[in-house]
Write a structure and sequence with these properties.
six-stranded antiparallel beta barrel, 194 residues, alpha+beta, globular, 7 helices
């Protein structure tokens, strides 16, 4: 388990990370289980670390290595801090069928979020219909940066599968054919030679 859902919507969810400063990576494919089975799939849009609402943690003006130890070893300070991540729903399972659409219902509050294995990423990313759901995710990050991060994540998890990367680039080209600036930005970001 990498997190617990603290807010949920039709399009996605926000989850509290299990470890401070250790959310899943931007673009990572994650899953939520229901009744012991994988059920919802989502792509991480962004993460944030901060103090509990209405609380402020004050550091000395000249931080040093000892400050980090103080935070790690002080349970009271740790309770004030939290790391959250937000994910966009991109698919769901119904019995043995995998859908790459927004699910009819979002996952419930307090459900656990898990990382997907390399095999699960390869299986889910075999079809690319879900890219459409990532072309215009909500702010704060530009959609092409989220999609580029996701494509890089999948490319690595699929064992640097160049054939898949070519299919992904073609899919992106068809989705962003009317927006050349965004398309070029994304293609540059997923170029394995860079």
């Amino acid at each position: 388990m990498i997190g617990e859902i603290v807010e949920t919507t039709t399009l996605g969810f926000r989850a509290g990370s299990q470890e401070l400063h250790r959310p899943p990576a931007l673009g990572e494919l994650v899953k939520v289980r229901h009744q012991g089975r994988d059920h919802w799939y989502a792509v991480v849009l962004y993460s944030t670390t901060g103090a509990e609402a209405g609380r402020h943690v004050v550091r000395r003006a000249t931080p040093d290595v000892r400050d980090e130890a103080i935070y790690r070893e002080n349970p009271q300070l740790q309770r004030l801090l939290h790391t959250l991540f937000e994910a966009r729903l991109v698919g769901w399972r119904e019995e043995d069928r995998l859908w790459q659409t927004v699910p009819p219902l979002p996952p419930p509050l307090h459900y656990s979020v898990y990382s997907c294995t390399a095999e699960e990423v390869a299986d889910f990313s075999e079809r690319l219909h879900y890219f459409r759901l990532l072309v215009d995710p909500p702010p704060p990050l530009p959609a092409e940066q989220v999609l580029a991060a996701h494509i890089r994540h999948v490319y690595v998890r699929r064992g640097y599968d160049d054939e898949w990367l070519t299919r992904a680039a073609r899919e992106v080209a068809s989705l962003l054919k009317e927006d050349h600036a965004r398309l070029l930005s994304l293609l540059y970001a997923i170029d394995p030679e860079r």
